[in-house]
Amino acid sequence: MKRDPTPLRKTGRPLSFDRDDVLQKAMLAFWQSGYETTSISDLTAAMGVTAPSLYAAFGNKQLLFLEAMRRYTGDPAALERTMRDAPTARDAVAGMLRGAAMLYTGETTPPGCLLASAAATGSPEASEVRKAVAAERRIIRDIIIRRIEVDVAKGLLPPRTRPETLADHAIAVTQGMSVLARDGADRSRLLAVAETATLGWDD
User: Fold this and answer.
1) I want to staple 144 with a disulfide (CB 3.0 to 4.6 A). Which of 53, 109, 117, 167 is the partner?
2) What is the topology classification, in CATH, of domain 74-196?
3) What are the pLDDT digits (tens) for 31-62?
């Protein structure tokens, strides 16, 4: 996925804050309210920095969100390794869904999924954000597809298995779980959804 580079900050007096710390706070602000409804003043209040400092460190709101999103999603290679190391593709996807259930109901984080919150963005000005969110989902989908294809090749899943459909189902379940979490569903409900999502894979 093509990523927008973070602009280089002009040389001069060093930043008076921990960049990693304020990025974490920005991520939580976007996670709570989504991209479009989180204003610069909301961000500066949450991050504890001034607007000029925000622009100097991150460029603009969109670039800040994209960096916060990458922090949220983590390294795709790590997800691929985790799924590859799982005993089966079914175990890999079930584990991913359980992880989502845990993440969406964290005690110190907003309910639901940051990507789902951002996807609700509707203004033309935020089209690049929607494209970036969709690209992140495609990366995850492709990782799931590759893991399922391995099991089909090994005979662990029936030849008629459709990896793309199973991957789409997994992505749809994660987004549905985000909605449930936003609506107040607790962790046990989301874990129950995660556990049932792959039950029909061998049919």
Assistant:
1) 167
2) Tetracycline Repressor; domain 2 (1.10.357)
3) 999 999 999 999 999 999 999 999 999 999 99
- Average the pLDDT over each of 36-50, 91-105, 123-137 and give the range with the smallest value: 123-137
Sequence-ordered alpha helix ranges (H) in the chain: 19-33, 40-47, 51-58, 61-73, 76-85, 89-104, 114-119, 127-154, 163-182, 187-196
Report the candidate in 129, 135, 137, 92 with the shortest Cα–Cα distance to residue 113: 137
Instruction: Give the Cβ contact number of residue 97 at 10 Å.
Output: 22
Q: How far apart are CA 175 and CA 117, in angstroms?
A: 10
| pLDDT, tens only, 12-21 | 444 578 999 9
In this predicted structure, what is the pLDDT of residue 7?
A: 43
CATH level 3 topology of 19-71: Arc Repressor Mutant, subunit A (1.10.10)
The domain limits of the chain are 19-71, 74-196
Tokens of 86: 């799982």
Q: Are 67 and 114 in contact (CB under 8 A)?
A: no
Place of tokens 């949220």: 72
Return the SS3 of 122. coil
